[in-house]
Each structure stands twice: as structure tokens, then as C-alpha cells.
Here is the input.
Amino acid sequence: MALSAHVPDLTSLELLVTVARVGSLGGAGREFGLTQQAVSARMRSAEALVGVRLLRRGVRGTALTDEGAMLVDWARGVLAAADELDAAITAVRGDRDGRLDVAASFTVAEFLLPGWLARLRTELGPETGVNLVVRNSEQVAALVLAGEADLGFVEGPTLPDGLDAVTVATDQLVVVVPPEHRWARRRDAVAAAELAGTALVTRERGSGTRLVLDRALDAAAPDTTRPTPSLELSATTAIRQAVLAGAGPAVLSTVAVQDDIETGRLVRVRIAGELDLRRELRGIWPEGPVPAGPARSLLRIARQRAGRNGTARMGSRAATA
Amino acid sequence: MALSAHVPDLTSLELLVTVARVGSLGGAGREFGLTQQAVSARMRSAEALVGVRLLRRGVRGTALTDEGAMLVDWARGVLAAADELDAAITAVRGDRDGRLDVAASFTVAEFLLPGWLARLRTELGPETGVNLVVRNSEQVAALVLAGEADLGFVEGPTLPDGLDAVTVATDQLVVVVPPEHRWARRRDAVAAAELAGTALVTRERGSGTRLVLDRALDAAAPDTTRPTPSLELSATTAIRQAVLAGAGPAVLSTVAVQDDIETGRLVRVRIAGELDLRRELRGIWPEGPVPAGPARSLLRIARQRAGRNGTARMGSRAATA
DNA sequence: GCAGCTCACAAGCCCTGGTTGTGGCTCGAC
DNA sequence: GTCGAGCCACAACCAGGGCTTGTGAGCTGC
Here is the structure.
């Protein structure tokens, strides 16, 4: 990471995009509740920061230079990500007495939901209050059953009675180790029984990830005694870091480690035999008709986007360590 | 767009991610060249901004809360985008006497190259100076031929002699109009001849987009007299905005307008008959062996990522107008 | 020629975000 | 038990960024 000192802050980027759209500094300022002078100064310092002339100031207004046009497009990408973050924050705050209460498992909340929420917001307008609660799949199901959430998103094969569900995406779990681990060098696949007999870093019981893992191992290596996990953590990120620190192999969602695999910080271990580590991400609601209103919109968005954008977006996430 | 006031600035996000990784405020501060107090204050104000407790401060260090873990993941997405922007800025600055001179067409530069450059940088380290020049396809080819660029990226079917090329991705052009346009309401497809006979907002001659369009129309409707374009602009963004403002239909890359189509700001018009508006995005270099060194790395990255990430990333771009 | 729009320059003010200095707390070593 | 080394928080101080208001200059069009 370590952003160089040439990247303007979010406000300046937003302002730049607005100037590009409106076509004048003063006009952009008016939209932002700023004076023309303030905008002018900000743009000037942004240009100084970037080191390239971005705007062609004329007496008729201000237009982008070629480089400016490029930058604006790139900036839009940053702002889009920030917008997702914003949607997520608003949901987590849950201040505006939200009409829509959503509960989601960690995996969904971490990697998919922000995009859905951002989209929901552009569709329904910013007034649509969404309250988001993040729990493991089991607890999410309980919340929806208890009526404390209108809509839930869970992973894993089982569901308590009293819930209806629709699959919104499919996720794949993979086994990863740090490059120093002996499995990283193996050219042959690791046997399912060997994996089953190894102490792993895992999510806690009750999480969808853990359940899928346990079932797959039970099915593929029923005779192997499973050791106790070397660590049980409740956050994907924490597991990822424990693995990076050498705590042992872990089984994680592809989307969570894709970038680490690409950059070589983690190595994906092939497993012999048919170990089914796919799992479905599902939207759930109390038994009965598909919910109406914003809940229905969110469900639709989830189904539309999950397949197309879900995993792909993750690929563009940058390095951390 | 219009980011709400709950989003911390990039530095705070970066700091938050670092705190999460390092596990202590002071430790993160050391990495940043800041005092523990400064980090503490920043995190406190970030929490106030977000409205949610993000960190669990203990005497042994500082760990993330559940909400914090979510936010950090989302923040990573923002930082990844910022990192791409950063890579692009560095390339456009072209200050550090770059060993690698790249020329790219607008389409490639706008939508694909930042990701490639960011990736290149994580692979080769930040010292790899890249100089980026953005021109239309014709000019890019000329630059590479003249030896002024080591590597070029162009779209469109033709190439001057003396260049070798490899296809890195395929792009699709689409016809778009604003929702008010009469074509937007048509349920039947527009005939190729009708499109050919309509004044469009287009890129200038010499651009790959324009060339593909002209050829496709000539092939599909050879007898139709083509009117002069209603506008000729050199930037995709400018065309997009002209169309939004009602200047007429335009033919643009899918990736450039995908989000507008999703949100309904623009409507995609179906064209009858076989109008082939696909085009290949190609990496080019002076005739001879595939270039070595960083140029080779960039080519590889482009081929790896283009198919997978290229268009998908665009889908997550947020609204503008 | 004036109204209306554009942008730029200058002076002043406030508050953000950094610093140093200090203190409280807990853990681990001796 | 005591001391040192971490960790964090609170307080006072200082500099500079970023905003405002006030002003001027240039082009366009009625």
C-alpha cells in the first residue's frame, strides 16, 4: 500500500469530478456550498500534488485537459469504492431509523454487501435507512427467525425451519498456507485425510465457513480423527493474518484471499479427491411470500450483481502486507 | 456520488488498516513516522466520524471490533482503488526517468491500465519508473514505431507495418442514447442503415473506436450516405456527457457506459442485423522479439487481468450525474 | 457600455492535525 | 515485590491548510 504523496484527498477528487461535470469552478463550488475561490485553490493544489496540469481554465469556464480526463476517470473508481464504504458505514451506524433491517454473515458483509447497499442507495435514494448487523450464519438465521431482521444473508448448506431462501451466489473455499509452509512446496496434492488430520486456523462453530468445512471433511475422510483447531477466530481478516504469521493452514473463501494468492503472500494448496468446498450464499426471510419494498430490491440487486461483480471486484483489491 | 460526511479521509483509512495489521497504535505510528498520540487522535476522530466503535483498545495493544474488521475490509477496497490512481498518476507524471515508456489509447488508459500499472508496481517495486502517454490508437502506433515508446496498447483492426502485436482483451462497442431520445422507447431494433444515416457523437478520426465504427457501418450499410457527425470529441467522457446532454446517439465502449446503462441514465439501443462492433485491444511493440524486462511483465499482466478484471471492475463504478 | 459570467490574487481567521510532556495501567523479568 | 517496557489517554502548544470576504481583470452578449 503506502500511497505516495501524489494522491489528492477524497474531497478534492470529488470536487475535481464535479468540476469536470459542471464545467466551471464556481459552478462546482455552488453544488458543494463552497466559494469559487475555495474550489480554485483546491484544484490548484491538487494539480501541484499530481504534478500535471488537469484543467484548462478559460474565460468561458474550465474544462479538463487530456491528462485530467484520464485522472477523472480513475478518480471515479476511487469515489465509487468510497461510496460503497459510505453505504456500508451508513448501514452499520444504523442511526436513521432504518426501515430495512438486514443481517449478514461475515463473508457476505465483507465482500459483497457494500456494493449492494451502494446500489440500493442509488436506486432508492439516500433516505432509505438500512440497518446492518453482522453475525455468523447461525446467528443471522436466528435474527431473521426472531423478526429482528427483515432480510438475512447466510452461507452454508443448512437452514432452520421457518425460513425461505434464495441462492444469490456461489462461493468457493480454498486451502491456503504461507509460502514458507511445507505444503507450499509440494507438487502433489494433499490428501483430504491429511487435511482432516491437520490442525487448522478456522472460524468458530456456527459460522457458515466452518460448517461447510466440517461437513466436507467428514464426507471425504470419515475415519480421520479431527484434531482441535490451532486457532478459532471470528473474523476472516484475523484468520488471514494468523496464517500469514505462520499459525498453520486455513480454509478461506476465494474472494478473501485471491489477492494474497496472486501476489504470492499465500499459496493455495491443492487437495486430492473430491472435497466439495463450494457453498451457496443465500438470502433468507421469514417463511412466506418474498418480502416487499426495499428488502425485495436488495434481494434483486444481490442476485443481479453477485454472479457478475462479486468475485471479480475482489481481484482488484490491492496488497496489504 | 456526494459522499456523506461519515467517510474518513484516505490517510485515516490507511492508518486504520495499518493499525489493524500491526496491532497497536504506536506501532502503526512508527511505520508512518507519526507519534502514538497523533494516531490515537486520528483514530478517535475517525470513530467519531463513522459513529461506531472500531477499535478495542487494551493495555496489550489495539484490536479491531467486529464492525472495525468490516470497515477495514471495505477501506481496503478504497485504498486499492486509490493505489491504482496513484500508479496512474506516477505514470502520467513521468518524472522519475522511467525505464519503461508506454503509450496507450484512451480506452485502454481509462479503464484498464491503472490496474495493470498498480499490479506492475507491486511486482517490481516502486522504483520501476513508467512513463505513460495517452493518445489515440493511430498516434500510439506511430510512437511505438518511432521508438518513442517501448510498448503500446491500441484498439481497432488495423496496424501499420513494422509492429508486432498480441491481443490482450476484447471490447464491445454499443450504441447509447439518453432515455428521452426516441430510440430509447423503440421496442424493435434500429436498422444498421438507419444508424449509418444518423449524425452521431463520435471520437475523432484516427481513434480506434471511430475506425471500428466506420468499418462496421460501411460493411453493414454500404449504400447509405453517412452524414457528418454531430460532434467529434477526443475523450470518452466528453462524448458520454454530450450524449447525456442530448447531443445525439453515440457509439461507446461497453465498459465506459455500463454503469450509466445500469442506472438508466443511458439506454442501450439494439441494432438489427450483424453489425460487428467488437474490437480487440492489443499490445504492440516494434517488430521483433517480445520485449524483455518490465515491458514483458506489463504485457503478461495485461493478458492475465484484462479478461478477468477489465470489464467487471467497471461495473462497480458509481454514478456521476 | 454595462450586466453577467468566468477565473485569480490578497488578507485574515479558524480549526485541524501535528508536536512534546506527562500520567495511568498491565505484563513480564528479576 | 519492584522495576522497566510496553501500551494507551489527556493536556498544552504551534503551524499551516483551507475557508471566507473583498477585489480586480478578462471575455461575451444584450
